[in-house]
Structure formats: structure tokens, C-alpha cells
Design brief:
1% helix, 4-stranded antiparallel beta sheet, Methylamine Dehydrogenase, Chain H, globular, 5-stranded mixed beta sheet, mainly beta, single chain, 391 residues
């Protein structure tokens, strides 16, 4: 599938490439967009929308934005015009409130369908055009699994005809066309989403569950290998990150990060470091270096750059806790108090381009999204802002 929706040559031969962001962590599921030609120094807020409480990010496809929010015991899936925020359709269903109210997962668009996951493990397949329900499955009851402490946070990961979820101690798969359980495991999940990758002609999935990192066959669920990685409160919230035959994992609560070799089909620890401890904000990898937010919510936190070869720190910048994506060789970080930072993705030093106050204030735990010249940011109260960064 082509990742760029349109590309044009400007008068000065500057390539501009806009990109949809239709799955969790972007078109390549790595927190990086191929979008170019955007200008952080021109950033200006263009619209605001109230969604209800929650932590769901946004997905953008063909001019439509999909996200979720919670209000008075009900979740709502929203479809909005991505440029204006105007409503197109919505779908509401009952959902328990729980601590830290609202959905954690992000809607995922696949063809004519959009897949959502509630904090209670209800997976819903909706028609992208109308919002009509195609099917819904209560995954916890169907697989005999229990919810985790703060609710299911795994976004759906579409792999062929399957949907993969971080439920059970090594994942669960549903048929994406029917919602029926294709394979399952039982045990304690965690909060990261599965990451699918190729290894020696097979499609495998890295699932960061409560016991640690699990590598399974994506089609069958067969266990390939695992690495024990227990964290306080069973929180392994940052997605594993593939770097060729290596896998980077990181957890907060004074755990650590580590680089693992998987070239032989067995997990082997290459190095570990306490420099980058991602509580639940996933890092990004660019040209040999890892950029991420180290630290805990509501405490001192740092945007850091470390060398992927040995974990050594290259620089740090105190921004408090936050989240991070990247595009066009630039970092886009949202601090939990609502400050949006734009910086060069370089290991030499922290090189800020600009920053702006989004007006969101605490708590901003949801990662920003860049799609088609607009950056989208939200807070836990459910205020979504759209910021134009077009040339």
C-alpha cells in the first residue's frame, strides 16, 4: 500500500508529501510518519472538539478522523471531518467507568472497517462510512481472561485476516471479518499493543505482557520464545520496537530498557540501561539512535536520545512526562502539561525548532498525531485540538 496520499513538486522543487495515520503509531506502526513539507514554525490552532474523558489517540484516513471518549457510563466512537472537526457519525455503547476514566485504545482503520477496543475488552467492528456495527466481541468473556488493573489499553493490530490484542499472557487473535476467536492464551496482559514483524519467512508478533516479552507466531499463537520482564503493577506499556533483528524494550517504575538480539530466533540480551525508562510512551528509532521520554507521570521527565548500539546517552532535555512521534527528520513531543515541542532528530544535541502552548493543560498522556499538515493533541478530559503546521 502506498503510504503517501499525494505528492507534488513545488515551484522550488521542494517535495511535499502528506500522509494518513490510520493505525496505532502511524502508517508503519513505529511512531514515524513519512510526511514532509510541514512547518512547525507556522503552527496555529484551527479547531477544538470535546470528546469526553479518555486517552484514545486519533486515526486519520481519507479525510476522516476516528477517536473515542467517555461520558456518564458510556463510550462514544467519533468519526469527524479531519480538516474541520465537523461530526460525520458517532456510535455509543455502555462501558464501566473505572479508575482513570475512558478508553485507552485507538481506533484502527482497515479497508471499509474501523476496529475499536474498550477498556473492558469489548472489540467492535464498525463500517467507516456509516458507523454501522458489523460485529462486536467481548474478548475477556470469550477467552476466559481477566482485565488488568487499569483496563485494556491494547489497540487492535490487523494482521492478514486476524486482529491481534495484548490480552492473555501471550496475546489473543480474532477473525477480523467475524470477531470469532482464532487463537488465545490465558494469563495477565499488560498495556502495550502487539508489534508484528518478519523473521525467516514467518510473521511473528512481539507482545509485551505482564510476565515479559512474548514472541509468538502471529497466525497460530504458537510460542516462539519469551523473556521475563516483570514491572511494578504489571505495567509494560511502551510497545516493543523492532530494529532489524533486534528488539528494544523499556519500562518505567525504575525498571530499565534493554536491546535484545533475535537473529537466531531466540531472545538474547545485548545491553541494558537505566537511562531510558518509558512508563508507557513508546520511543522512536531514527538513523542509529533512539529518542524517547524517560520518567514517570506527574514527576520529573526528560526527552532523551540514546545510541542504539550500546544505550549510551547522547543528550537530554527536561520536558516533564510526555509522549513522542517523529516525521521528516523532526521530533514532535507533547508534554503532559500541554506544551508541544518541535525539535530536530539529531544525536548531536537537543536542537529545538519551536514550541507552542496547546491550551490543553494536564493531563496530556496521549501521543500526538501528524497527518496531512495537521497535528492532533488531546488531554485526559477529552479536549482534542487540531494544529495546522502546513507550509
Amino acid at each position: 500500500m502506498k503510504r503517501c496520499i499525494w505528492c507534488v513538486a513545488a515551484a522550488l522543487a521542494v517535495n511535499v508529501c502528506a500522509d494518513d495515520w490510520f493505525i496505532w503509531r502511524g502508517p508503519n506502526a513505529n511512531g514515524i510518519s513519512s510526511e514532509t513539507g510541514w512547518n512547525p514554525e507556522s503552527a496555529k490552532k484551527i479547531w477544538t472538539k470535546e470528546l469526553g474523558t479518555g486517552y484514545s489517540s486519533v486515526s486519520i484516513k481519507d479525510g476522516k478522523l476516528y477517536t473515542m471518549g467517555h461520558n456518564k457510563g458510556e463510550d462514544t466512537v467519533f468519526c469527524l471531518d479531519a480538516k474541520t472537526g465537523a461530526p460525520i457519525w458517532d456510535y455509543t455503547y455502555d462501558c464501566e467507568t473505572g479508575k482513570f476514566k475512558g478508553p485507552r485504545a485507538t481506533p484502527v482503520v482497515d479497508g471499509e472497517n474501523v476496529y475499536t477496543v474498550s477498556r473492558a475488552g469489548l472489540v467492535i467492528c464498525l463500517d467507516v462510512a456509516s458507523g454501522k456495527v458489523n460485529w462486536k466481541t467481548d474478548v475477556l468473556s470469550k477467552t476466559g481472561n481477566e482485565n488488568n488493573r487499569w483496563g485494556i489499553a491494547s489497540s487492535a493490530v490487523v494482521e492478514g485476516d486476524l486482529i491481534l490484542l495484548n490480552i492473555g499472557d501471550a496475546g489473543v487473535a480474532l477473525n477480523k471479518n467475524t470477531g470469532k476467536v482464532a487463537w488465545k492464551t490465558k494469563g495477565m496482559p499488560s498495556y502495550a499493543s502487539p508489534v508484528v514483524f518478519d523473521h525467516k519467512g514467518k510473521r511473528l508478533a512481539a507482545i509485551f505482557s505482564a510476565p515479559g516479552l512474548q514472541i509468538v507466531n502471529a497466525k497460530t499463537g504458537k510460542k516462539i520464545d519469551d523473556l521475563a520482564w516483570e514491572t511494578k503493577y504489571n505495567i509494560n506499556g511502551a510497545d516493543p520496537m523492532m530494529i532489524g533483528d533486534r528488539i528494544f524494550i523499556s519500562s518505567g517504575y525504575d525498571r530499565e530498557c534493554a536491546m535484545l538480539d533475535f537473529s537466531t530466533g531466540k531472545l538474547k540480551k545485548l545491553w541494558k540501561s537505566e537511562v531510558m525508562k518509558n512508563q508507557f510512551s513508546s520511543s522512536v528509532y531514527i538513523d542509529g539512535y533512539i529518542y524517547g521520554v524517560d520518567g514517570q507521570t506527574k514527576k520529573k521527565g526528560f526527552l532523551r536520545c540514546i545510541d542504539a548500539e550500546d544505550g549510551s546517552e547522547q543528550w537530554n532535555m527536561q520536558i516533564g512526562f510526555g509522549s513522542l512521534i517523529a516525521a521528516g527528520g523532526k521530533l514532535i513531543a507533547l508534554g503532559e502539561k500541554g506544551t508541544l515541542y518541535f525539535a530536530e532528530a539529531t544525536p548531536k544535541k537537543y536542537s529545538e525548532i519551536s514550541q507552542m502552548e496547546t491550551g490543553l493543560s494536564q493531563l496530556c498522556w496521549t501521543p500526538p498525531v501528524l497527518a496531512n499538515g495537521i497535528v492532533y493533541c488531546r488531554n485526559d478530559k477529552g479536549t482534542l485540538v487540531a494544529i495546522d503546521v502546513g507550509e
